[in-house]
């Protein structure tokens, strides 16, 4: 059975959403890039691309070829290219990486998308407290880096522009000419089709149209996406999930969300972003009220804030966060009970996903992933205990840690797509 028009979504990460024109959609599904005369790139620098249909009944479409990637090991710095000098990139006390050094996660310049091999890219990862930015080359050499505090409301977007301006100002004129594209990733709800940051409860913006607010001052095409989508994509393609087609990435921090990759494709929807694992109700109707308005969501039990809050409610003792509760596992029965409840909530929330798509791997990122085996091993066991018909996925810690967003933003800017 042919997929309905509303089941098609542009495969590009900046995609134009659901294709309403049936004739154009059918042409795109046959591999065309649209009617003659339509340029490959839009005025804002975004590429136009063919739509991706859901798999038809009885078969699976072939996944797109992956770009080769061989990230370097995390335990030592990657090599700086011989003869490549970096001038005009000055270090600041709040930089996220030291200019003139190579970010080990980036690896060598095996694939540059549609950019020239010597092109530089600008990536900005916006968080609720701070935003981080870097300008890097294809090998991961950092030319400029910086961190600014994230203000509340729409003013945060002015600060994003200011951070990009600061990074570009740190370059020589020759280096500035090499910066070919940027990528900005933000939290909350993002509507790629309408080019809009719809809502962020933590930062406090609503319905902010992006338009040319980045591309105009920076003088280059700038891509825009959801932060967890890009961070999860980076972990899947280049990090702990590299080489595995079916992967669920779970970011565990103040909130919980993630990505899902099936058959070598990043799952998207007409709504745009997927992976709101934290808002799957697992303690309904007797659980705690979630910030989303529902009751008993995974996030109310298993997020970092919820773990710390549950321990304080159980013992009357405040902690500095979930990491401290994990540190008490071996000596404190209350800590053990709180963590066991969080693990059960995560397993209950994931079990439907596991039955539906059978991921081979669950990758944990975010702050709670720092617990390592104290989290991955009991979660794997809890998932296994709930399964009878399908195999339990391996559960591992992500490779990029807190840098997953920045690494993803740089890769996204370089490739021009979430391939």
Q: What does the largest sheet look like?
A: 5 strands, mixed
CATH architecture of one domain: 2-Layer Sandwich
Distance between the termini: 26 Å
The beta-strand count equals 15
The CATH topology of one domain, please?
Nucleotidyltransferase, domain 5
Q: What amount of the residues lies in strands?
A: 15-25%
pLDDT under 50 segments (min length 5)? 1-95, 106-110
**SSE order, one letter for each helix or strand:** EHEEEEHHEEEEHEHEEEHHHHEHEH
Average pLDDT level: 80
Helix share bin = 25-40%
- From the spread of the alpha carbons, the general shape counts as globular
The CATH C-level name of one domain is: Alpha Beta
| Order of neighbouring strands in the sheet with most strands | 5-4-3-6-10
Radius of gyration: 22 Å
Q: What is the SS-derived class? A: alpha/beta
CATH superfamily name of one domain? ATPase, nucleotide binding domain
Number of distinct helices = 11
Task: Note down, in words, how this protein is organized.
The protein is an alpha/beta fold. Among the domains are: 120-226 and 408-415, ATPase, nucleotide binding domain (Nucleotidyltransferase, domain 5), CATH 3.30.420; 240-398, ATPase, nucleotide binding domain (Nucleotidyltransferase, domain 5). It has helices at residues 22-29, 155-169, 173-178, 215-218, 227-238, 299-302, 304-315, 322-327, 333-357, 373-385, 404-415; strands at residues 9-10, 51-52, 120-126, 130-136, 142-149, 179-186, 189-191, 196-200, 205-209, 222-226, 247-252, 256-262, 265-266, 361-365, 394-397. A hairpin with a 3-residue loop joins β11 and β12. α7 (304-315) packs antiparallel against α9 and α9 (333-357) packs across α10.
